[in-house]
Backbone:
């Protein structure tokens, strides 16, 4: 690049840095918003069901029934409440005071001692289907664990044709935070890359400063680079802050290479910046650009990327639509690097797809950026 071009590019970059420093909204999107989102999803959002309000109805409180009911007191998943009758427990369930009922009938203790398979009544509030399934699974787990303990105390072994041995890979603590934090990084990078650049450039069109640049000797590629480079480093700074919080505040494991994480994040940020440039090139109003950026980048990154909702459980048409969402590929890379490691068979195809998307968006922006006011 010629010295004159270098000076012009350096001047443009300095202008953008000064504009960022003078604009509190840019600083907020790059650094304050990631902190807020990480705090919300790290502490306020959890897919783990704990302290489930369960009603215990023991019609005949003998030693066997009280022993089994005590298992719920020792479980971190339940917050049990005792009721004297099933009618009172059903009333509490209708009032949403409890999430389920465990009903030990009067023949529970005697039936267990006589080995006649005493029934346990389980009534679950099915309004929230996911919580209902979790309650059902947790109650069954407590029942089988209690049976094993009783067999051990009696010096016997449970007879079963199949012995289940569980092994949980990659997230042995089964913490939803370890799954959510890598995904929210993709949402943060999308906001910084797409929303910030779309707003800033659309604002320049509204204020007329873009026209002032177009009538100078600065070429279109220099204008694009002068705006791309500052916001790229701004986005990488937001990523660095997010990684520090993920490691030292939420203790999310990092099993992959840091350099590979930074490289894939830089690649995705480049794609997000291209999407922001594309939106601001087509829509030159801040309000419209912000609305389009939220609908076309943020919401898909949040809903259709596999960050929270499993893509395979979506309708076939929506599954096909997710292949157009850049955040889908970045979320896969992040979750792999954080929880599994450097699995190149996963990283390479997703990174290659991101590269193709980046070339597409930046190519379209370069083609549409002309040295005229049309």
Residues:
């Amino acid at each position: 690049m010629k010295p004159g071009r270098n000076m012009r590019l350096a001047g443009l970059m300095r202008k953008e840095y000064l504009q960022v420093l003078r604009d509190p909204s840019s600083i907020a999107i790059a650094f304050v918003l990631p902190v807020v989102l990480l705090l919300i999803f790290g502490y306020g959002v959890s897919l783990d069901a704990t302290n489930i309000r369960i009603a215990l109805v023991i019609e005949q409180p003998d030693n066997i029934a009280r022993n089994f009911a005590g298992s719920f007191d020792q479980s971190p998943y339940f917050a049990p409440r005792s009721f004297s009758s099933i009618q009172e427990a059903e009333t509490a369930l209708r009032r949403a005071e409890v999430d389920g009922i465990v009903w030990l009938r009067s023949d529970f203790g005697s039936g267990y001692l006589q080995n006649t398979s005493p029934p346990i009544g389980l009534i679950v509030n099915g309004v929230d289907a996911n919580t209902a399934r979790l309650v059902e699974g947790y109650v069954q787990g407590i029942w089988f664990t209690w049976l094993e303990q009783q067999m051990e105390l009696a010096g016997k072994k449970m007879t079963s044709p199949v012995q289940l041995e569980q092994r949980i890979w990659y997230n042995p603590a089964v913490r939803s935070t370890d799954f959510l934090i890598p995904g929210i990084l993709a949402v943060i990078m999308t906001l910084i890359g797409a929303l910030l650049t779309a707003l800033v450039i659309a604002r320049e069109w509204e204020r007329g400063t873009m026209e002032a640049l177009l009538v100078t000797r600065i070429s279109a590629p220099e204008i694009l680079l002068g705006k791309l480079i500052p916001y790229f480093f701004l986005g990488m700074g937001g990523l660095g802050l997010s990684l520090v919080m993920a490691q030292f505040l939420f203790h999310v494991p990092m099993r992959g290479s840091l350099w590979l994480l930074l490289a894939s994040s830089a690649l995705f940020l480049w794609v997000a910046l291209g999407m922001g440039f594309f939106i601001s090139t087509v829509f030159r109003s801040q309000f419209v650009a912000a609305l389009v950026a939220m609908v076309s980048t943020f919401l898909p990154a949040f809903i259709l990327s596999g960050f929270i909702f499993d893509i395979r459980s979506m309708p076939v048409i929506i599954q096909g639509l997710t292949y157009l969402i850049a955040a889908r590929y970045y979320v896969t890379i992040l979750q792999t690097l954080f929880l599994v490691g450097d699995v190149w068979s996963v990283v390479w195809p997703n990174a290659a797809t991101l590269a193709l998307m980046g070339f597409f968006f930046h190519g379209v922006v370069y083609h549409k950026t002309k040295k005229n006011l049309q």
Summary: The two ends are 28 Å apart (CA to CA).
